[in-house]
UniProtKB/TrEMBL annotation:
<dbReference type="InterPro" id="IPR013747">
    <property type="entry name" value="ACP_syn_III_C"/>
</dbReference>
<feature type="domain" description="Beta-ketoacyl-[acyl-carrier-protein] synthase III C-terminal">
    <location>
        <begin position="254"/>
        <end position="344"/>
    </location>
</feature>
<protein>
    <submittedName>
        <fullName>3-oxoacyl-[acyl-carrier-protein] synthase III C-terminal domain-containing protein</fullName>
    </submittedName>
</protein>
<feature type="domain" description="Beta-ketoacyl-[acyl-carrier-protein] synthase III N-terminal">
    <location>
        <begin position="116"/>
        <end position="192"/>
    </location>
</feature>
<dbReference type="Pfam" id="PF08545">
    <property type="entry name" value="ACP_syn_III"/>
</dbReference>
<dbReference type="InterPro" id="IPR016039">
    <property type="entry name" value="Thiolase-like"/>
</dbReference>
<dbReference type="Pfam" id="PF08541">
    <property type="entry name" value="ACP_syn_III_C"/>
</dbReference>
<keyword id="KW-0012">Acyltransferase</keyword>
<dbReference type="InterPro" id="IPR013751">
    <property type="entry name" value="ACP_syn_III_N"/>
</dbReference>
<keyword id="KW-0808">Transferase</keyword>
Length: 358
């Protein structure tokens, strides 16, 4: 397990941008064969309710750009002061060039600003924070703009009830910079690539390019419809992975940081679904009041944007009041990969959730 501690690095701003188009599982009864009881059971146990999704012309880069513009404006930061930009996404605008280069130009950042993409999903925000903290702590950059966002809804088949009701979209922007008064930040990061095929879009890359064959939609034994160009998820394996690895990862990080769970104000997990979050919290014996879970019910599973969305949507008030500043962030999923961070948010000056507008 990769563990590390960074001193003198703070998260000073965070903005999440969500699309305005909303879908409700109540309008998708046909996915469940008209079985109202099954639908209500899923809503109660898994937390499937509403989700925000982009239209055909909006991408993760668009959402992240709007979040970044709002963050830079609210922080009164000059563009020349951004030394590096990291873009975390698995739904880039192009296979080449990277989203970071595209957004660098659209935002008008300095030519001296290093920019790169990170291809990670559910754990991506924490991995991005780790990279940003590394750059600032090493002196390679004074300020890092971290953009994390995905539009997974565009990868799912609308008739695949295993994933279609789950995934929403979002983009985020975080500002990470030097500070001499912030508490140390602790990170742990893990990967199990043997499970790469448990959450995957099989076709569309160099291994299996798109073709007429990969576009054919087939029905699986569970009654779900998808093509090889759509997202596939082995739900049982992802659930088992999540509730097995996540509690261990969180416990190990707390032990490494020598911090008791009671001293953490909030545990912000990747918003996979309420059933998974509840199981993780139960295994860690956490107070459910410390575990935000409303985001997934309002916006869906937003992949790399889910943790910042939960912070901005559910914790902006306590963070602004400085009543709750010690947060444990933890993402898990596609890869398989997972990552946790214990961060002090006491110097967070911007924390907003905004709607995307053209």
């Amino acid at each position: 397990m990769s563990k590390c501690c960074f001193k003198d690095v703070k998260i000073s701003g965070l903005v999440t941008c969500v699309p305005t188009d909303e879908k409700s599982i109540d309008d998708e009864l046909e996915l469940f064969g008209g079985n109202v009881k099954q639908l209500e059971r899923l809503k109660k146990t898994i937390g499937l309710s509403k989700r925000r999704v982009v239209d055909d012309n909006t991408t993760a880069a668009d959402l992240c750009e709007q979040a970044a513009r709002r963050l830079l404006e609210a922080s009164s930061l000059e563009l020349e002061q951004v030394d590096a930009m990291i873009c975390v996404t698995q739904t880039p605008d192009y296979s080449q060039p990277c989203n970071a280069a595209v957004l660098h130009g659209r935002l008008g950042l300095s030519k001296n600003c290093a920019s790169l993409d990170v291809s990670l999903g559910c754990s991506g925000y924490v991995y991005g924070l780790w990279l940003a903290h590394s750059l600032v702590a090493s002196g390679a950059a004074k300020r890092v703009l971290l953009l994390a966002g995905d539009t997974i809804s565009r990868l799912v088949n609308a008739k695949d009830r295993a994933v279609a009701p789950l995934f929403g979209d979002g983009g985020s922007a975080s500002l990470i910079e030097h500070s001499t008064t912030i508490a140390p930040a602790y990170f742990s990061l893990q990967t199990d690539g043997s499970g790469y095929d448990k959450l995957i879009v099989p076709a569309g890359g160099a291994r299996q390019p798109r073709s007429e064959d990969t576009a054919v939609v087939c029905e699986d034994e569970g009654g779900n419809f998808r093509s090889l160009e759509n997202l596939y998820m082995d739900g049982a394996e992802i659930f088992n992975f999540s509730i097995t690895e996540e509690p261990k990862s969180v416990k190990d990080l707390l032990e490494y940081a020598q911090v008791e769970a009671d001293a953490v104000d909030y545990f912000v997990f990747h918003q996979a679904n309420r059933y998974i979050l509840g199981n993780i919290a139960k295994r860690l014996k956490l107070d459910l009041a410390k575990v935000p879970m409303q985001t997934v019910e309002q916006f869906g599973n937003q992949s790399s944007a889910s943790i910042p969305s939960a912070i901005c949507g559910e914790l902006a008030a306590p963070l602004a009041a400085r009543d709750s500043t010690q947060l444990l962030l933890s993402g898990f999923g596609v890869g398989l990969s997972w990552a946790s961070a214990l961060v002090d948010m006491s110097e967070l000056s911007v924390c907003e959730l905004i709607d995307y507008s053209l």
